[in-house]
């Protein structure tokens, strides 16, 4: 029986991480209640032929792929996935005609250690076919108790060729924080939001406070499949001058504008937003809004294209109907569903952070002289700086020199004076192969006569 006393809550989420133990769901389904909820609240009109189907699964197949009927255990797993409480193999999935498709692999998870890749299709789990199953229905077959094993049959397309293979993966507890943060080189704060969870607002506020000395910020929602729309409202409130979060359009109702939840802590300075093709749902709510408002520069690739919202309806046996009840748009009406959000700056896959970081550094060296870059240097490279006149090296402030890994931190180094015009910058550790760096020398040095150097310089460096 549907519990009318329980207020349904709203989700904007596209993707699930597998985490629950194998369960059998054989309870009597509340079909009459499901039919009435679909008839009344589903975002589009549904034919009676669909509503007359004999099981909840058959009815759901007549709706969109985000509408699902879940058992109590499946629902618990779903909520855990949003809140980043994970026990399983560590993948983000969506439905595929041949099984379930891996959209992302969590770093250092069992799936990652086993070599699974985004784009892989999981066709069987322990010999059971996953073809035609929803993500929720596939969960009991793939996930299980900690330290148990699952044999997965996998299809992978590589350079146009389809290969099939099997992997045995041991399930484990996966630790994935909702929010991660660090100070990048150049005093640029990097905050990554992995899910729009119940505690996202508090965690982001804590991260901003931790990075309060940052001159600018990079906010990262790559591979973020969404979460609670209330969390999206809270996250939007961290961006100055953004008062509205999104527009919702429900069946037979006028469009409604939902406000941002104003936050005491705010991002200061320029902000970049990182997205990719797996940024979905609530992530797209945020991206389309910030792009429309000009509150952040969006970097990456076009997003997933899920512009629908789901409402959760709970039944007395603990089962839950997740039903698509609205489509969302930017506050001014820009559509997302089936379209996605195009970035302001398109980057290669995997270069979203380095590109945004480089642009933030460029803002800090505006007006500096740009010297010719150094390409394919050795990891043991040292840098010699030669001035045009004699310098007072005893007065040098080492903080006036920065060697910054793009997408990473400042590189510690030592200075060695060669002569009155030359000094050498010696990194304390070898540079990373394949990485890119920016060497910045800020103005303010004194020459032998006590006169300051007025113009800074910078150059780009790539490592072989």
From TrEMBL:
Domain PDZ: 67-142
Residues making up the signal peptide according to the UniProt record: 1-26
Pfam families in the cross-refs: PDZ_6, Peptidase_S41
PROSITE patterns membership: PDZ (PS50106)
Keywords noted in UniProt: Hydrolase, Protease, Serine protease, Signal
Gene3D superfamilies noted in UniProt: 2-enoyl-CoA Hydratase, Chain A, domain 1, 2.30.42.10, 3.30.750.44
Family: Belongs to the peptidase S41A family.
UniProt-recorded name of the protein: S41 family peptidase
Organism annotation: Sporosarcina oncorhynchi
């Amino acid at each position: 029986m549907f519990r009318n006393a329980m207020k349904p809550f709203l989700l904007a989420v596209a993707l699930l991480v597998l985490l629950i133990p194998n369960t059998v769901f054989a309870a009597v389904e509340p079909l009459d209640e499901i039919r009435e909820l679909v008839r009344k609240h589903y975002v589009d009109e549904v034919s009676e032929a669909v509503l007359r189907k004999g099981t909840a699964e058959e009815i759901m197949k007549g709706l969109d792929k985000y509408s699902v009927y879940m058992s109590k255990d499946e629902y618990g797993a779903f909520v855990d996935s949003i809140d980043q409480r994970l026990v399983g193999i560590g993948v983000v999935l969506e439905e595929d005609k041949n099984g379930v498709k891996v959209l992302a692999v969590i770093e250092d998870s069992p799936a990652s250690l086993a070599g699974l890749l985004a784009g892989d299709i999981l066709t069987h789990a322990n010999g059971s076919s996953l073809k035609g199953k929803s993500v929720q229905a596939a969960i009991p077959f793939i996930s299980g108790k900690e330290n148990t094993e699952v044999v997965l049959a996998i299809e992978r397309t590589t350079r146009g060729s389809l290969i099939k293979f099997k992997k045995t993966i041991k399930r484990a507890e996966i630790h994935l924080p909702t929010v991660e943060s660090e100070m990048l080189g150049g005093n640029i704060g990097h905050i990554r939001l992995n899910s729009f969870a119940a505690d996202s607002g508090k965690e982001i506020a804590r991260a901003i406070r931790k990075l309060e000395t940052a001159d600018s910020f990079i906010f990262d929602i790559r591979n973020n499949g969404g979460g609670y729309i209330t969390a999206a409202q809270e996250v939007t409130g961290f961006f100055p001058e953004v008062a509205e979060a999104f527009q919702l359009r429900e069946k037979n109702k006028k469009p409604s504008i939902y406000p941002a939840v104003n936050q005491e802590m705010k991002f200061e300075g320029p902000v970049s937003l990182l997205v990719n093709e797996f940024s979905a749902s609530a992530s797209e709510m945020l991206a389309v809004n910030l792009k429309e408002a000009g509150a952040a520069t969006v970097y990456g690739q076009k997003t997933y294209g899920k512009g629908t919202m789901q409402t959760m309806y709970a039944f007395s046996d603990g089962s839950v109907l997740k039903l698509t009840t609205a489509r969302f748009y930017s506050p001014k009406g820009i559509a997302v569903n089936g379209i996605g959000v195009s970035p302001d700056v398109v980057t290669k896959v995997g270069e979203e952070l380095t590109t945004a970081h480089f642009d933030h550094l460029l803002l800090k060296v505006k007006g500096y002289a740009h010297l010719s870059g150094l390409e394919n240097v050795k990891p043991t490279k040292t840098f010699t700086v030669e001035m045009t006149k004699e310098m007072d090296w005893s007065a040098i402030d080492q903080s006036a020199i920065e060697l910054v890994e793009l997408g990473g931190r400042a590189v510690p180094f030592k200075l060695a004076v060669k002569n009155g015009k030359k000094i050498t910058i010696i990194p304390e550790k070898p540079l990373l192969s394949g990485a890119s760096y920016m060497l910045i020398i800020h103005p303010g040095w004194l020459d032998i006569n006590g006169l300051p150097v007025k113009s800074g310089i910078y150059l780009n460096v790539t490592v072989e």
